[in-house]
Write a structure and sequence with these properties.
The complex is a heterodimer.
Chain A: H1 3-55, H2 57-64, E1 70-74, E2 80-86, E3 96-104, E4 107-120, E5 123-132, H3 134-179, H4 200-249, H5 256-286, E6 294-296, H6 298-308, H7 310-315, E7 319-322, E8 330-332, H8 334-350, E9 357-365, E10 368-375, H9 382-387, H10 405-415, E11 418-425, E12 429-436
Parallel strand pairs in A: 7-9
Antiparallel strand pairs in A: 1-2, 2-5, 3-4, 4-5, 6-8, 9-10, 10-12, 11-12
Helix pairs in contact in A: 1-3, 4-5, 5-10, 6-8, 8-10
Chain B: E1 2-6, H1 10-22, E2 26-30, H2 33-42, E3 47-51, E4 53-54, E5 57-58, H3 59-68, E6 74-80, H4 87-92, E7 97-101, H5 105-119, E8 126-129, E9 132-135, E10 140-143, E11 146-148, H6 152-163, E12 169-170, H7 171-179, H8 190-204, E13 212-215, E14 219-222
Parallel strand pairs in B: 1-2, 1-3, 3-6, 6-7
Antiparallel strand pairs in B: 4-5, 8-9, 9-10, 10-11, 12-14, 13-14
Helix pairs in contact in B: 2-3, 6-8
The chains are: A alpha+beta, B alpha/beta.
């Protein structure tokens, strides 16, 4: 997951938590404040009532002197009430508040009730003042909604603001990844220009990358130079020797024995030349010096290649089947792909005894294209199989090759991101399977 | 035919001259870009053998100035593998053919012949060897108006031997010419022998071919 997304998710979660906490806290505080307000107004009413009571109403109430009688007064809409009665219970000196449900004229309502105990002329009285809570609760509900909306809005706005800001902040980083890190395997295409940023971490990262790539590029250039030098320095003397021996061969004054020696020398020179060329080829492939990739048509490549080897196939009386039929578009270096398949097919022909068979087929399996080259040749043991891609590895000593063919195959396959699976059974045959990564049909 | 050889390795130039002299070319050798540029501006050459890695610059510079002068000169670039990214690059810059070192002299001879024939539009489109006519433009061989049906490889071998007549051609040279510089083919000369045997059988039906010699242990030679 990208850093940007991780930060976004993390901050979104934090914000959501914060929102929940804020919502609960605010709800709690507002409720407290609202209740406090009601209570204060009830205390005011109590004071007013108790003051008035002393002078007028209580007299009437006392005169009746009825212990069960209640004095009750309700406001018109039952939004508040006042109740006074005698109490025989022990007196409580402190006022207290209770939330209670009262039924008034068949209407049940939630009230906040203030209990006030007092003694008047040796008689205990309880004064209850109630204030209906529904209005307050309605108000509180509205408040909650408003708070929730406000908080949500804040959350969304700040989330977007932050995303934009993070985007802006991480832009240089993204650029480093897109234009530098992703091209790290192609040192030649590397962009050495500095990424504009004021974030010191990114500057350090960018500088570090640039320095590293400078060094790699330098190394790369040196290696390329070295390869060019080696090829020139080694192949020029080989060239001189070969041409001199060729001229010598046509010199009438040389006897048969001399001619034989010249021919053997020429053959050795040829081997030397092939080894140098093959090593050069491997190192050039591994240095990514084959850059010109083009679409490759395997059907024609393979049929051309088999036509090229026709005489060998005929001479060994091999049965060859080519069932390559899928239309697979692959971008690769044509020369290298030819060498890759040629080497495998050539080996198959070489190691299959007269009258055997070689088959080339292709298929799509789980969306992956693959080409299989099978033979009914002498096969290999597990140990041999594990070493076939090593340089200078020869399966048998009579083999005329230099043991570089499959090494080249492996280098080319790596370059093209092709996986090779080899299965083999001694005296039964070998199958090479090339599995292509790109999924195109 | 005048050929200018631009090659900084003297020993190699000596061998090239030795071979080309015997094949009837008149050779001049220079070792640097500067000399090469002077030489092509003063004298008329039919062909140029151009090494790319020269002490005072790249052979490409010579090639560019030759092409700028619109001279009808056949140019074969000679280079060590690795100096060019692809064969196409050399041809793109105006070379007519391209050989990688080390190459067989007989291969050079065949290429040079083909390039000069193409560039200078020779009327000679036919090689004649003891009555056998090799038509170069359509790969046909005939003997006294009778077609000799050859496979492409047999034709290649025959033409190659005739172009290098009176020279011993080794099996290795023939193999490389017919199959190209294919990797890991190595010196499996049996295949060449089979093709040559078939070729000789086909030619022998039309006329005696004692001039088509097998050189013991070495290869083949056609005597004119």
């Amino acid at each position: 997951m990208k850093l940007k997304n991780k930060i976004s998710i993390f901050s979104a979660v934090i914000r959501l938590l914060l929102l929940i906490i804020m919502w609960f806290t605010l709800s709690f505080v507002i409720k407290k404040v609202a209740y406090k307000n009601i209570e204060n107004s009830m205390v005011e009413k109590r004071d007013k009532f108790v003051k008035n009571l002393n002078t007028s109403e209580i007299n009437a109430f006392i005169e009746r002197n009825d212990s069960t009688e209640l004095y009750v007064s309700f406001s018109n809409l039952h939004s508040e009430f006042l109740q006074l009665y005698r109490s025989n219970n022990a007196m409580r000196s402190k006022d207290y508040f209770v939330d209670e449900t009262r039924i008034v004229e068949n209407e049940s309502n939630e009230y906040r009730v203030l209990y006030h105990h007092f003694t008047y002329k040796n008689t205990h009285y309880v004064l209850e003042i109630g204030e209906r809570l529904s209005e307050v609760n309605e108000l509180l509900d509205k408040f909650h909604l408003v708070i929730l909306l406000l908080l949500t809005a804040t959350l969304i706005v700040s989330h977007f603001a932050q995303s934009v800001f993070i985007d802006y902040l991480l832009k240089p980083f993204q650029k480093i990844i897109d234009t530098k890190i992703n091209l790290i395997n192609e040192p030649e295409l590397f962009d050495h220009s500095k990424v504009h940023t004021t974030t010191s971490d990114f500057i350090v990262l960018d500088d570090g990358l640039n320095q590293m790539m400078d060094r790699i590029q330098e190394q790369f250039k040196k290696e390329k130079q070295f390869i060019a030098n080696v090829s020139h320095e080694l192949l020029t003397p080989v060239s001189v020797l070969q041409n001199r021996l060729e001229n010598l061969l046509n010199n009438e004054s040389i006897n048969d024995e001399g001619v034989d020696k010249i021919v053997v020398s020429l053959r050795n020179l040829d081997t030397l030349k092939r080894i140098i060329n093959n090593l050069l080829l491997i190192s050039r492939i591994e240095n990514h010096q084959y850059s010109n990739f083009e679409p490759i048509d395997f059907q024609s490549l393979i049929s051309e290649l088999l036509a090229d080897l026709e005489d060998r196939i005929e001479m060994k009386q091999l049965r060859v089947s080519n069932t390559v039929k899928e239309h697979f578009v692959f971008e690769g270096n044509k020369t290298l792909m030819h060498i890759l398949i040629y080497n495998i097919v050539f080996n198959a022909i070489k190691f299959t005894p007269n009258g055997g068979s070689v088959s080339v087929s292709d298929s799509f399996e789980e969306g992956l294209y693959s080409i299989s080259i099978s033979d009914t040749g002498k096969g290999m043991t597990e140990t041999q199989l594990s070493q076939i891609f090593n340089r200078f590895m020869k399966i048998n000593l009579e083999d005329e090759g230099q043991g570089l063919g499959l090494s080249i195959v492996s280098s080319i396959a790596n370059l093209h991101k092709i996986a090779i699976k080899v299965s083999s059974e001694l005296n039964v045959g070998t199958t090479f399977r090339l599995i292509f990564q790109e999924v195109k049909k | 035919m005048n050929v200018l050889i631009v090659e900084d390795t003297k020993e190699l130039a000596v061998e090239l001259i030795d071979y080309l002299d015997k094949s009837g070319y008149v050779c001049k050798w220079v070792a640097t870009c500067e000399e090469a540029l002077e030489e092509v501006s003063v004298n008329q050459y039919d062909a140029l053998l151009l090494d790319l890695g020269l002490p005072d610059g790249s052979g490409f510079d010579v090639l560019k100035s030759v092409r700028k002068a619109k001279s009808k000169m056949a140019v074969i670039v000679i280079t060590a593998r690795g100096e060019l990214d692809d064969k196409i690059n050399g041809l793109d810059l105006g070379a007519d053919d391209y050989l990688t070192k080390p190459f067989a002299l007989t291969e050079l001879g065949a290429r040079l012949y083909a390039v000069i024939r193409r560039i200078h539009g020779f009327t000679v489109n036919e090689l004649d060897i003891h009555g056998f006519k090799i038509r170069l433009q359509d790969y046909k061989v005939s003997y006294q108006e009778n077609a000799v049906a050859l496979t492409k490889k047999e034709f290649d071998i025959f033409q190659y031997l005739v172009l290098n007549k009176n020279r011993v051609i080794t099996r290795l040279q023939l193999t490389e010419h017919v199959w190209g510089d294919v990797l890991e083919v190595s010196s499996d000369s049996n295949f060449i022998d089979v093709h040559v045997r078939n070729l000789r059988k086909k030619l022998d039906k039309h006329a005696s071919i004692e001039w088509f010699e097998t050189v013991r242990n070495v290869g083949y030679r056609i005597i004119s």
